[in-house]
């Protein structure tokens, strides 16, 4: 058997409350597992059972309703010069792909503002399910962020980070390919966020590149599975201890895949903590403005943007 077939991402279990109580010894070992998974793969799967079945059904039903809207309606989601936020669809390179960003998508106001653009009079059900989901994903993201800071011994910086975190919620739909062969749903890229939380319906299609250049399939088809991914900002902040992984969506089968990405951005200047600079890890990045990274260019390379 080829070794690639055996490759898979680490799976961390976040269902036991006692492992998630800051300060306890099991919390510290959870922090260590998170750090190891990030350093080795740049991402991992988390089992987190905070989204009920009713919420899952409502959530993916709402996404179907949204993406079933006419293209002209979806095109009303425009943010000038912001490719991560505006509607993307009918792109000749990735015809199966459609996505829309919701600014302040973890707040009811942000969701209502979006829904009013899509439906006359808004859509209360949509806002209810999306806000309930966003709460779960944000809670997971904040916990993971705290674990990263704690595992590097810089917990005091976490509080500043957490106060200025801005979330962008992105909704994605990937249609089934019309051919038998798998078809690219989303091109290979790294995220510009600090961290990203991904969730999907039962259709797997996400692939992540390992440090050795092999592509591995990510199975997070269970309703309790989430993917936690390091973005370029975490790579720079960690002084290259964590690498933001290249990933893509490769569609096969005959079902539509709906997914959600929650992207964490720091409103301000991020810099490598002194504790993460030593002889073995000389400083790799100058302090950088995280939100400006988004405007720099979507395909920005961190070394070009703020390398020492
Ligand atoms: O749909 C997915 O699972 C991945 C989406 C993604 O990589 C992104 O939006 O940056
Ligand atoms: Fe991504």
TrEMBL record:
Q: Which PROSITE patterns does the UniProt entry name for this protein?
A: FE2OG_OXY
The UniProt entry, under SUPFAM superfamilies, shows: Clavaminate synthase-like (SSF51197)
Q: Which keywords does the record carry? A: Dioxygenase, Iron, Metal-binding, Oxidoreductase
Q: Which GO terms describe its molecular function?
A: dioxygenase activity; metal ion binding
Under the heading Pfam families, the entry gives: 2OG-FeII_Oxy (PF03171), DIOX_N (PF14226)
Fe2OG dioxygenase domain ranges (all copies): 164-268
Q: Is the keyword Oxidoreductase in the record?
A: yes
What is the recorded function of this protein according to its Swiss-Prot or TrEMBL entry? Answer: Probable 2-oxoglutarate-dependent dioxygenase that may be involved in glucosinolates biosynthesis. May play a role in the production of aliphatic glucosinolates.
Q: Which family does it belong to?
A: Belongs to the iron/ascorbate-dependent oxidoreductase family.
The protein here is known as Fe2OG dioxygenase domain-containing protein
Q: Can you name the source organism? A: Clitoria ternatea
């Amino acid at each position: 058997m080829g070794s690639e077939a055996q490759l898979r991402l680490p799976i961390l279990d976040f269902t036991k409350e006692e492992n998630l109580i800051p300060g306890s010894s099991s919390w510290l070992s959870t922090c260590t597992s998170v750090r190891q998974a990030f350093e080795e793969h740049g991402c991992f799967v988390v089992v987190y059972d905070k989204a009920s079945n009713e919420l899952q059904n409502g959530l993916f039903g709402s996404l179907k309703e949204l993406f079933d809207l006419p293209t002209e309606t979806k095109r009303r989601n425009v943010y000038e010069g912001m490719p991560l936020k505006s509607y993307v669809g009918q792109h000749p390179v990735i015809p199966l792909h459609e996505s829309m960003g919701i600014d302040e998508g973890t707040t009811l106001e942000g969701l209502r503002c979006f829904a009013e653009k899509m439906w006359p009079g808004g859509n209360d059900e949509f806002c209810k399910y999306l806000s309930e989901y966003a709460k779960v994903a944000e809670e997971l993201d904040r916990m993971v962020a705290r674990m990263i800071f704690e595992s590097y011994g810089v917990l005091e910086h976490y509080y500043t980070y957490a106060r200025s975190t801005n979330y962008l919620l992105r909704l994605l739909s990937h249609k089934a390919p019309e051919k038998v062969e798998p078809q690219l749903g989303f091109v290979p890229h790294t995220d510009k966020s600090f961290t990203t939380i991904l969730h999907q319906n039962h259709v797997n299609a996400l692939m992540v590149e390992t440090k050795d250049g092999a592509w591995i399939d990510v199975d997070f088809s269970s309703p309790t599975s989430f993917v936690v991914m390091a973005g370029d900002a975490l790579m720079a902040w960690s002084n290259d201890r964590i690498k933001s992984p290249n990933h893509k969506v490769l569609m096969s089968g005959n079902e539509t895949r709906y997914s959600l990405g929650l992207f964490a951005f720091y409103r301000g200047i991020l810099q490598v903590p002194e504790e993460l600079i030593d002889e073995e890890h000389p400083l790799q990045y100058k302090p950088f403005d995280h939100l400006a990274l988004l405007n720099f260019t979507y395909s920005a390379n961190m070394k070009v943007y703020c390398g020492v």
